[in-house]
Design a protein that fits this description.
This protein has 154 residues and is an alpha+beta fold. The protein folds into two domains: 38 residues; 96 residues. The chain has six helices and four strands. Strands 1, 2, 3 and 4 form a four-stranded antiparallel sheet that branches. Strand 2 and strand 3 form a beta hairpin.
Length: 154
């Protein structure tokens, strides 16, 4: 009887069946995933995808500009440089119009307030405004984008 009492007081060992079933299911899922990726059933980045060709592009570098800003007593300067993204067939035409482009940009940047130039959040709007003015000077369809390569206010 004493042996029976000892057996009843001992805690029952937990079953290892759920742990074994979980390991088997994990191995099956891992193996299935490997097979799907290896056989091509799953599209993995870079494995079977083709990269689209870039459209033909050319760049026209604008000469760096230094623009005087603000009042005479608190004069600041902006150093600005950019490149124009153009279609290769329009590169020579846009290059020929660089003096007009620089004139338009110089006039626009002088008219913008120093506070707008100082705020990095305004650069997107300024860039869009400059691009639109350049597109008016060069004609529609010649300049695709304006890439600002230097924008230093001091």
């Amino acid at each position: 009887m004493a042996d029976m009492a000892v057996q009843q007081d001992a805690p029952a060992k937990p079953s290892r069946l759920p742990l074994i079933l979980g390991a088997v299911v994990a191995l099956m899922l891992g193996g299935g995933g490997f097979y799907a990726a290896y056989s091509g059933l799953l599209a993995l980045p870079g494995k079977h995808e083709s990269v689209a060709e870039l459209p033909p592009v050319a760049f026209v570098a604008l000469d760096p500009m230094v623009v005087s800003l603000g009042q005479a007593d608190s004069r600041q300067h902006l150093r600005f440089a950019a490149q124009l993204e153009v279609a290769p067939e329009h590169q020579a035409e846009v290059d020929l119009l660089k003096p007009r482009i620089l004139d338009v940009l110089n006039g626009y940047l002088r008219a913008v307030s120093v506070n707008d130039l100082d705020n990095p959040a305004h650069l997107v709007r300024l860039r869009a405004q400059m691009l639109r003015r350049i597109q008016i000077v060069t004609g529609e369809g010649r300049v695709r984008d304006l890439l600002v390569t230097e924008f230093v206010l001091n």
